[in-house]
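Notes from the 1:1 (GR / supervisor)

We went over the backlog. Supervisor wanted to see one worked example end to end before approving the batch request, so GR pasted a single chain during the call. The sequence is below; no edits were made to it. Supervisor asked that the structure be written out right there so they could see what the output format looks like.
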Amino acid sequence: MLRKGYFIDKEKNQIYNNEVVVASKVYSNNITLQELGQMIFNGVVEDIFICNYQTERKSTLERLFIQDVKSEWNTKYKNNICLDDEASLNDFPNGYCFFVELWESEKGTTILVLFQYH
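Structure output shown during the call:
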């Protein structure tokens, strides 16, 4: 079965673009919100994806434009990032939050995946 677009195969713990492995190493998330912002604004993060849909085996990813994330950082992202393992949506503006995963691509660059919950 041909899989289209970007996705995380949860069984293999890898990010794919169609059938090509893009990343297979997850960083430990021992970062602060300030450090994450610096990584985005200083060009450490090369790709950003959002996951709005996932199953037990697969997380479907949509690529975001880094410039859009930067321009909306203070209004849409910064106050809605959760760096813990659990969260109450009542603790976040507008009733949504993003859980964060940082990956190392096959090229050695940093990929940010935002898992949106609402």
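Supervisor's comment: The chain has a mean pLDDT of 92.
Batch request approved.
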